[in-house]
Write a structure and sequence with these properties.
The complex is a heterotrimer.
Chain A lengths: L8 E12 L2 E6 L15 E6 L3 E6 L10 E6 L3 H7 L6 E8 L5 H4 L3 E7 L3 H13 L7 E7 L8 H9 L3 E7 L9 E2 L2 H8 L6 E6 L2 H13 L7 E4 L15 E2 L2 E2 H4 L2 E3 H5 L6
Parallel strand pairs in A: 7-8, 7-11, 8-9, 9-10, 11-12
Antiparallel strand pairs in A: 1-2, 1-6, 2-5, 3-4, 3-6, 12-15, 13-14
Helix pairs in contact in A: 5-6
Chain B lengths: L1 H12 L4 E9 L5 E6 L8 E2 L21 E7 H12 L8 E6 L31 E2 L22 H13 L6 H5 L24 H15 L8 H5 L6 H16 L30
Parallel strand pairs in B: 1-4, 4-5, 5-6
Antiparallel strand pairs in B: 1-2, 1-3
Chain C lengths: L4 E4 L3 H11 E9 L2 E6 L25 E8 L6 E4 L6 E7 L1 H14 L6 H8 L1 E6 L25 E6 L2 E6 L2 H9 L4 E4 L5 H4 L18 H4 L4 H8 L5 H5 L6 E8 L2 E8 L20 H20 L9 H5 L6 H10 L3
Parallel strand pairs in C: 2-6, 6-7, 7-8
Antiparallel strand pairs in C: 1-9, 1-10, 2-3, 4-5, 4-12, 8-9, 11-12
The chains are: A alpha/beta, B alpha/beta, C alpha+beta.
Chain lengths: 274, 284, 339
């Protein structure tokens, strides 16, 4: 019998690591037969804590490293709060993958400019590692990543690998001076402007807090990036993840189906509500 | 009287600080509904008749953020709720311009047929409410309260639960009663709260009872008996049956004549040393 | 060639008994001043005629509350038991054209990939016997949406009232099965007379300009009608509960001890927390945004994406809106905005 809609598979938490004061990284086991459901960078899963509820979390691992799935979960509400109380060995439900994912095919052969703030790095990390695992298919990779303080930078254990990867540059920044921090100080949009990377043959991918996105998109446009070459993700309340419950409807689309990854050109065609 | 209403409203809207005027208008299909007039030229839309059921004061908290003055036409019964909204600081008295609408002895029209609306019987009028303008002397329709037949006394105690089961079963959890009520002005209602979630979306009798009993208790001593909840209910749940009974109980226990009739604070929102129950150590 | 067949009104109870032998039978039943769709046998008089039940037909295909699965929560190995949506075949009797038309609209959401199995099963296992309707009141405008209330499309069979008889005409295979089961009650065939020849349409406004509403949201975004509606609308959501085509739902988990359930239930886009995220951010923070979303979704986005207007002109929202907001007037305003 076809799996009924809205019924999750049961999976187990393999490990939990602290990323920042309010964000944990969950590693989730593969399915019973040792595989992971196939997914694309930029997609999300609906994770269930049984008896509490479900929430959409983007997949932060990359499909090029099979056998496990990773989710970065920030504690914001009742479900994420309940997730934070779970331990390795506990069971959760999983539905998905949902969403459109990044348009990887159209990004091949181009230089990629990642711009992330805070936990916004999580969905981009999937694409960054995917690109690094398929290094020959893509041009240079530049990553601008910032947080309010050094302690709020996520995935710091990956930074060395990214810095060492061929034709890859990592530019870290924090919002204000901090003791022991010897790197750049400044807001992410300012660092983006200062880098002044040419829009020629380059795709910009931005994800972070709304205020950072707002200014970053304006600056990228001012720097000459065409709307089709600026990619971002929309964060909305979602429930079913399959375009039926109506919650994520904006204009003619459902974000859970046509998004959450959008080009700026697509966003401009939607009602300005987000 | 309509001509006078239009004149006063027009003069009000001509003031520079006037934001808008809230009154009633009549549609081509005969229904009377609230109208929000922003320019003096629109005052001809205003009406005042026996079908002006809505309590316009209930809209005032929505205008909190506006800079200017809001004009509003209120019936005597609605003025009670307005007084309570002012007392609880949901409305700033200095930012509203109140026009009193006097009723005739026939009160408002009943919803079915040509009689008099239920709410007008036993009309409790605010005695010393200050209006900025009136269309005529504000007085109460001289209609005595109806006999016991419309409250619990007419239902034997052993039949009451079955009565309520029957009424509550009709409820479709649409929230119309809550949204139309002036007293439901909480920015986040307990039933909208997600964290914690007090009431699930299940449509069982248990959930419906919970909603209606909590809501009725939140209204005790604050309900003006306007009956808008019952009028708004698409399923015909007899909410006023419950609310009128609770009002009777409050009067019996505290001698309280009703919210907004005077400056007295509703009994359950305050305390006094003369309260019926003794203050003990809590051991009772 | 299928013809109209006659059944005596006095045989109705016996007909219902036969139908109930193998199936669940639903019909409009009087409850106080309203009609409600109820499973028979039900307390109250059955009503077959030109009156809408308060809650529309969608309640039988997307139930108000529907359990999805139950789960036994044990740390080592939880076990999910999906809930079987329906098991028995069903017949719905006395459905009006407006309600039948909504199924075509709901199909475009729930039968689109991924298919909602619960909805699909209910569709498959339900036979719809429509009632020819002459219109209920001034709120009706189904004919503006291309619906024929006298002989509705999408029904498996149509019933029409003529004096002391009901005329029955099967329209699909499912309808023919039903007619065959009721052979014992069929009197002489009525020939080829159709409801239009015995009934005449009393109410249905046919000039509501739904087709002239632009499919470009930008053209409708800042119309003055939203100012009026946002001041007037209470945000109560009565319209969404009673609307045959409104289908937004919420999903909730509940837990008692070591067992839990997940269910879905009707939700309303008019609710303040519909789009509010756990962080507190809300892209539709006031009534204005929510009212606009509701009307534009039905009249602009849905037609654009699915090729059908998301309204069937039943007028339930017009009758029951506590502040007399009329969707036909809103459509007039939006159609004017295209100029």
């Amino acid at each position: 019998m076809k799996r009924p809609l809205l019924v999750p598979i049961i999976t187990r938490i393999k490990s939990v690591r602290t990323l920042t004061e309010d964000t944990l990284l969950f590693e989730v086991m593969s399915l019973n037969n040792g595989t992971t459901p196939s997914y694309r960078p930029g997609q999300f899963m609906e994770l269930s804590v049984f008896g509490v509820g479900e929430c959409p979390i983007s997949i932060t691992s990359t499909p090029t490293r099979p056998g496990y799935l990773e989710f970065a979960v920030r504690e914001v509400g009742s479900v994420t709060g309940a997730l934070h109380n779970l331990e390795p060995g506990d069971c959760i439900g999983m539905r998905g993958p949902f969403g459109n994912g990044f348009p990887v095919e159209t990004m091949k052969g181009k230089d990629i400019f990642f711009i992330a703030g805070g936990i916004g790095l999580a969905p981009l990390r999937s694409l960054i590692n995917y690109i690094l695992d398929n290094r020959g298919d893509f041009g240079t990779v530049d990553i601008v990543y910032g947080a309010r303080t050094p302690e709020l930078l996520c995935f710091s254990e990956e930074f060395e690998a990214w810095q060492k990867a061929p034709r890859t540059h990592l530019h870290l920044t924090v919002d204000t001076e901090a003791p022991g921090w010897k790197g750049t100080v400044g807001f992410v949009p300012a660092v983006v402007k200062a880098l002044a990377l040419s829009p020629k043959n380059r795709i910009a991918v931005a994800c972070g807090p709304p205020i950072m996105i707002k200014f970053t998109l304006l600056d990228l446009t001012a720097m000459g990036y065409p709307d089709e070459n600026i990619i971002t993700t929309l964060e909305l309340k979602m429930k079913c993840g399959i375009g039926k419950c109506g919650r994520c409807n904006i204009g003619p689309i459902y974000v859970c189906k046509k998004g959450p990854v959008f080009r700026l050109s697509e966003l401009k065609g939607l009602p300005q509500e987000y | 009287m309509e001509a006078k209403l239009k004149k006063i409203a027009k003069e009000f809207l001509q003031r520079t600080e006037a934001e808008c005027f809230i009154g009633y208008e009549k549609l081509s299909d005969g229904s009377v509904k609230p109208v929000f007039i922003r320019s003096p030229g629109e005052v001809d839309r205003l009406v005042w008749n026996r079908e002006c059921f809505a309590n316009l004061a209930a809209y005032l908290p929505n205008f909190r953020e506006k800079e200017g003055i809001i004009g509003i036409a209120v019936k005597g019964c609605d003025a009670r709720s307005l007084r309570e909204l002012i007392r609880t600081r949901q409305v700033d008295r200095s930012k509203i311009y109140i026009i009193g609408l006097p009723c005739t002895n026939n009160g408002l029209k009943a919803h079915e047929g040509d009689g008099i609306a239920e709410r007008c019987f036993g009309c409790r009028f605010p005695e010393d409410f200050h209006y900025d303008a009136v269309l005529g002397p504000m007085k109460t329709p001289d209609l005595p309260a109806r006999a016991e037949s419309d409250t619990f006394a007419s239902i034997l105690p052993e039949n009451r639960y079955a009565f309520w089961e029957n009424e509550i079963e009709k409820c479709i959890r649409c929230d119309a009663c809550r949204k139309i009520c002036y007293a439901c002005f909480c920015p986040e209602c307990i039933f909208e709260s997600q964290q914690p979630r007090w009431l699930s979306r299940r449509q069982g009798q248990s959930e419906k009872f919970f909603f209606h009993s909590v809501r009725a208790l939140h209204l005790v001593g604050r309900c003006i008996g306007c009956g808008e909840c019952e009028r708004a209910c698409p399923a015909g749940v007899r909410l006023m049956f419950l609310n009128r009974q609770l009002q009777k109980d409050i009067e019996l226990l505290f001698g309280y004549k009703g919210v907004g009739v005077s400056e007295e604070v509703p009994p359950l929102l305050t305390f006094s040393k003369d309260d019926p129950d003794a203050f003990s150590g809590g051991s009772e | 060639m299928t013809q109209w067949q006659c059944i005596d009104k006095s045989d109705l109870q016996a007909v219902l008994s036969v139908l109930q032998e193998k199936r669940d039978v639903f019909a409009p039943v009087e409850q106080g001043n309203d009609l409600r769709l109820r499973m028979l046998p039900a307390e109250g008089q059955i009503f077959l005629g030109s009156r809408k039940p308060l809650l529309p037909l969608k309640m039988l295909f997307l139930p108000e509350v529907e359990d999805l699965f139950s789960i036994s929560i044990k740390n080592t190995s939880p076990h999910i038991s999906p809930v079987e949506p329906i098991t028995k075949e069903r017949v719905v009797l006395g459905v009006l054209g407006c309600d039948i038309a909504t199924l075509e609209i709901l199909d475009r959401v729930f039968l689109e990939e991924p298919v909602d199995e619960s909805y699909r099963k209910r569709r498959e296992q339900t036979t719809l016997i429509a009632m020819a309707c002459t219109g209920e009141g001034s709120e009706c405008f189904c004919t503006s949406l291309g619906i024929d209330p006298l002989q509705p499309n999408g029904a498996d069979a149509v019933l029409a009232e003529e004096g002391e008889t009901y005329l029955l005409k099967p329209l699909t295979k499912k309808g023919k099965h039903i007619a065959e089961e009721l052979q014992a009650f069929i009197k002489e065939a009525a020939g080829s007379r159709r409801p239009k020849e015995i009934l005449s349409l009393k109410y249905s406004r046919g000039d509501v300009p739904v087709d002239r509403v632009s499919q470009e949201p930008g053209k409708l975004w800042d119309l003055p009608v939203w100012d009026d509606l946002s001041a007037l609308c209470l945000g109560c959501g009565v319209c969404t509960v009673l609307c045959p085509t409104c289908h937004c739902f919420d999903v909730e988990d509940e837990r008692r001890g070591s067992s839990g359930k997940r269910f879905r239930a009707w939700d309303s886009c008019m609710s303040a927390c519909f789009t509010r995220m756990a962080s507190g951010e809300n892209p539709r923070p006031t009534t204005r945004e929510r009212v606009r979303q509701r009307f534009l979704h039905k009249l602009c986005y849905f037609p654009r994406e699915k090729g059908m207007v998301g309204c069937v002109g039943c007028g339930r929202c017009i009758v029951h809106c506590p502040v007399s907001i009329r969707i036909d007037e809103v459509i007039d305003e939006l159609a004017g905005g295209d100029i």
